[in-house]
Amino acid sequence: xxxxxxxxxxxxxxxxxxxxxxxxxxxxxxxxxxxxxxxxxxxxxxxxxxxxxxxxxxxxxxxxxxxxxxxxxxxxxxxxxxxxxxxxxxxxxxxxxxxxxxxxxxxxxxxxxxxxxxxxxxxxxxxxxxxxxxxxxxxxxxxxxxxxxxxxxxxxxxxxxxxxxxxxxxxxxxxxxxxxxxxxxxxxxxxxxxxxxxxxxxxxxxxxxxxxxxxxxxxxxxxxxx
Length: 226
Known about the structure:
- The protein starts with 6 loop residues before the first helix and ends in a 12-residue tail after the last helix.
- The chain is globular.
- It is built from eight helices and six strands, in the order ααβαβααββαβαβα.
- With 226 residues, the chain is α/β, with parallel strands linked by helices.
- The model has no long low-confidence stretch (mean pLDDT 96).
- A four-stranded parallel beta sheet has the order 3-2-5-6. It has a two-stranded antiparallel sheet with strand order 1-4.
């Protein structure tokens, strides 16, 4: 696991890579590979969320749980899939909510959210790798310690961020966030199993932009081109 990390994140989190949990995680991933496991996303994409959204450019954080475990889907951004791959159900509901919430939004024909990441939306999964076709297979191996550190470091060293926490798993991360400095918006998960319990209609995208504008910042352009 050769680490290529954007400089501002390396400055903020570089020490984590010398800690025992990260060394154990690296050993686990090497063992997986030696045993012939197919791991998603590909190595260069594991830290895409951080590499596309530098530490000092983060404005909004959307927290996911696990990378997609199907072929060609995961590329290191939560809820996002590579172009040419069928848009997953949760992302379809995210698009549905955007279509209802943002007047000019038009649903794109793909699920690649890199544009958001480049605009300041940190699309962070709690676990950054997964074994092919085995959801949750890399949970509890150390990634969560690292990504919790990402969240707590943002909370500590930045101010005025907006955290969109969808579903119970993401909402449990609220304890890492100083809500006197940041805004936390909570809703149900966009999965088809829960979207109608409060995700659809939450208007998190327009609310986030209203907060950014109020803080004197540029709103996120949520539109994704085909």
